[in-house]
């Protein structure tokens, strides 16, 4: 949390400096076109990569596994998509890192390893087993039941 406030101050300054420098280098109109182009490219990449990640997560769930990496990748896709929509070259660069599959998977693995996306109060990791969700010390009794009061209601 202490890092958020300085980021909200530093990132816009970096963006303004980069926009001015790129505008001086290639001109105003090409800079504006480039900013809009990166937003369009970002939305297109987000759609494709989002669907791919969703399909991989679905496949893991069908196999009885928790799709931890895919969930973190989904969060990175959302963050990357927002960064690409925000005008500026620095956020576009960070957004592309979140959208390119190779770098996104590496970031996702690092986030899981470091526990970055763990909810406060939770412990453990995203890993799961394919065993059932019952305690080992519980006794299982197989049988049938019948409600007697239901039979009495039907007789009346």
Automatic annotation (TrEMBL):
**In its keyword annotation, does this UniProt entry include Transferase?**
no
The record, for Pfam families, names:
FxsA (PF04186)
Report the leader peptide range: none
Tell me which InterPro entries the record gives: FxsA
Q: Where are the transmembrane segments?
A: 26-46, 75-102
Q: What are the entry keywords?
A: Membrane, Transmembrane, Transmembrane helix
The entry's cellular-component GO terms read: membrane
Protein name stated in the entry: Membrane protein FxsA
Q: Which organism is it from?
A: BD1-7 clade bacterium
């Amino acid at each position: 949390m202490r890092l958020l406030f300085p980021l909200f101050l530093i990132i816009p300054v970096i963006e303004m400096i980069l926009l001015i420098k790129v505008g001086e280098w290639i001109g105003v109109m090409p800079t504006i076109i480039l900013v809009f182009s990166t937003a369009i490219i970002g939305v297109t990449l987000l759609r494709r990569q989002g669907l791919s990640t969703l399909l991989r997560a679905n496949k893991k769930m069908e196999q009885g596994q928790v799709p931890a990496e895919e969930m973190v990748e989904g969060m990175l896709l959302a963050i990357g998509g927002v960064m690409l929509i925000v005008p500026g070259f620095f956020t576009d660069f960070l957004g592309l890192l979140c959208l390119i599959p190779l770098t996104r998977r590496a970031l996702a693995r690092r986030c899981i390893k470091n526990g970055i996306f763990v909810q406060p109060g939770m412990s453990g990791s995203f890993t799961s087993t394919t065993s059932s969700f019952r305690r080992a010390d519980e006794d299982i009794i197989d049988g049938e039941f019948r409600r007697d009061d239901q039979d009495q209601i039907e007789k009346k």
